[in-house]
Amino acid sequence: MTAPAEREYSAVAYDTVTGKVAADLSLAAEPEWAAQINDAGFWKITVPIDGAERTRQVREWCVPDKTSVAVLRGDQVCQAGPITPYEPSSDEAVFTVSGKGIWDILDRRALHNAAWNPGAGQRLTDPAADVTLTGTLWRIAREIVNHQINMSYIPGSNLPIDLPDIDPAGTNTRTYHGYDIAPGGQRLRELTQVDGGPDVLFQPYLTTVGGARYIRHRMLIGTPWLTQPGVDLRFFYRRTLTNLAISGGIRSTATRAIVKGAGQEAGQLYGMASATDLISSGWPLTDDINTSHTDASVQSTLDAWATANLSLAAGQPQQWQATVLADADPQLGSYTPGHFVTYSVTDHIWLPDGNYRWRLIGTSRGGSTPRDRVDHQLQAVRAD
């Protein structure tokens, strides 16, 4: 059997606003990266410098926020987004720079109505700055980003993000007030965290327009999960599945979830959900307490957050991470986070022989991951 051809890593610098590629980058080491559902993700590269021409070239493209970097394996873009702060060494001939996915920009951009016009004297505290969205939760997720990247009167809002077409029908409503001055990325993440909230993934890709290369990002939105059609991905232990790491107790198990909302003292709002089945089975009462939604005043939303938090906190206490070959079938690039995966295991020191089905929520390569492999981040609860 012929071993699959190993694809090389590469990187390019591109304009954050337009997505136009500005430069191909030389790498001095294998890059690190992570892409995960409902998360900005990250990337890190190391490039050579020499105190002369190479250094001048790096200084030219290495401009935080204005410039982004895309990490590629072959023609597959693993992660891409803005450069974040860096600190060059004074005595090394290499330079390490890192950044995050495109969601990071939304995490640092206040959400207000795209038609809000400060030049006409409108203030963020005016109703004109408010955003009221109606439809399915996945439609609302799309529209949050639409208001973030298509502002009518404020320059610099455009980003190379492709929005999906989603039926506007639906009965959910969210109102985001301009006076909250809350980041759109935060509001998007909060929406993914409610019970029945959608998965969101910004999937970068390389394209060519008029002879010029561009990096763009597809906004993938689940209904509510991002899933794949057809059969599960399948990896075989000691063949395409090279390592299976299992950890217990990484996240404490809870049998009740409490989400603190707006208010104080006797007027305090909160959402709560309990795992009565676990308590009946002998588990102790332990709480997952969340205080990150203290501006929320809608009871149903608080309850939905509590239900979603409980489903994670009361689930399978083990955390799995799989390491697989990146260029063997199924290849990295032929699947995305959201897929269901079956790992066929025999002769594992801990697990009985069998097929183990999980949901893939992220892919990554860390500093200790061999260059021909990629890590799978998996939901703490098996998909079956």
Brief digest:
It contains six helices and 21 strands.
Structural class: alpha+beta
State mean pLDDT (0 to 100 scale): 92
Rounded to the nearest angstrom, the radius of gyration is 23 Å
**Global morphology:** globular
Which bin fits the share of residues in helices? 10-25%
Strand proportion, as a percent range, falls in 35-45%
Report the major sheet. Answer: 9 strands, mixed
Strand tally, please? 21
What is the helix/strand order?
A: EEEEHEEEHEHEEHEEEEEEHEHEEEE
Distance between the termini: 33 Å
Q: What's the total helix number?
A: 6
Which spans of ≥5 residues are poorly predicted at pLDDT below 50? none
Notable features of this structure?
single chain, 384 residues, alpha+beta, 9-stranded mixed β-sheet, 4-stranded antiparallel β-sheet, 21 strands
Write structural notes for this entry.
The chain has helices spanning 53-61, 103-106, 137-149, 184-193, 276-280, 299-313, and strands spanning 9-15, 21-25, 32-36, 42-48, 67-73, 76-82, 94-100, 131-135, 161-162, 172-176, 200-209, 212-221, 233-236, 241-248, 256-260, 270-274, 287-290, 318-325, 340-345, 354-365, 373-378. The protein has 6 helices and 21 strands. The strands form 5 sheets. Strands 3, 4, 7, 13, 14, 18, 19, 20 and 21 form a 9-stranded mixed sheet that branches. Strands 2-1-5-6 form a 4-stranded antiparallel sheet. It has 384 residues and is α+β, with helices and mostly antiparallel strands. α3 packs antiparallel against α4. The protein is globular, with a radius of gyration of 23 Å.
